[in-house]
Design a protein that fits this description.
The chain has 267 residues and is of the alpha+beta class. The chain has two helices and eight strands. A five-stranded mixed β-sheet has the order 2-8-7-4-5. A hairpin with a 3-residue loop joins strand 7 and strand 8. The longest helix is centred in the C-terminal third of the chain and has 135 residues. It starts with a helix and ends in a 7-residue tail after the last helix.
Length: 267
């Protein structure tokens, strides 16, 4: 009886194991336990993904776990996750949890599975909030750098095309430079000629300035002489007037005395 009981027990165990294995292979998708809570809720993610797959977990559009491996065990991928404490990923309402699974099945393939988690309350502590902000800042920087890498790769192709275009422009500008160089030499010769003319004009200006100063000095001297002669002429005119008046007075006096002189009587 004991042998029969052991055999039945082993048989039942084998049946249970077979059912579990078949169930694990038949189930697909993602399940979250619980399916609602706050940003501090510890969420158990149960994902039925291909064996030997590499998996990325996204909360809405932000990555919360990268390159998670599922080995050859006959169990689903189980991972503890939390909602990012970052707007808008921690806002009240439904949020989509996506499992991006990369695996090999004759060729590289990718599968996407989704589940929904509802945030019903939001009350993070200050310490957790500060740490969470730092974490998501670094994660955001990673995503930004990753995006920048692909952007730079695209820019590299654009720059290569631009290089060929610039090379053509360079050859054109090189020809223009040669022409401008010739024009520059001509302008230098013209500049030297203008410099010579300027020096000549400067010397003429200095000579004219000297002549002007000499003429001005002579004019001052003539003005002084003119003023002196004008004074002397005025004095001579006054003396002439005096002599004329004196002469007229003397003549009048002579005539007066000549008239008053008694005439001799004739006997």
């Amino acid at each position: 009886m004991k042998s029969i009981g052991r055999i039945l027990f082993i048989f039942l165990v084998l049946i249970v194991l077979i059912l579990n294995v078949s169930e694990s292979h038949s189930q697909t998708g993602v399940m979250l336990y619980p399916s609602e809570g706050s940003v501090s809720t510890d969420i158990v993610l149960e994902a039925y993904v291909p064996i030997n797959s590499r998996n990325n977990i996204f909360w809405d559009t932000i990555a919360i776990a990268l390159d998670v491996n599922r080995g050859q065990e006959n169990y689903p991928l189980i991972l503890h996750i939390q909602a990012p404490n970052l707007h808008p990923y921690s806002d009240l309402g439904n949020h989509t949890v996506t499992v991006e699974s990369f695996y090999w099945s004759g060729s590289d393939k990718v599968a996407y599975m989704n589940a929904t988690f509802e945030i019903t309350e939001y009350s993070p502590c200050d310490e957790w909030l500060a740490l969470n902000v730092t974490y998501h800042t670094l994660l955001g920087n990673f995503n930004a750098l990753n995006a920048s890498y692909y952007a730079l790769q695209a820019q590299h192709d654009d720059l290569n095309d631009a290089y060929q275009e610039l090379l053509g422009d360079y050859n054109t500008k090189l020809a223009n430079y040669s022409s401008l160089s010739t024009s520059y030499d001509s302008l230098c010769d013209s500049y030297d000629a203008l410099g010579t003319n300027y020096d000549s004009l400067r010397n003429n200006y200095d000579t004219l300035g000297t002549n002007y100063d000499s003429l001005r000095s002579n004019n001052d001297q003539l003005t002084t002489s003119y003023n002196a002669l004008t004074g002397e002429l005025a004095n001579a005119r006054n003396l002439g007037y005096i002599l004329l008046a004196t002469t007229m007075i003397l003549m009048a006096t002579t005539v007066y005395f000549a008239v008053r002189k008694p005439r001799p009587k004739i006997a």
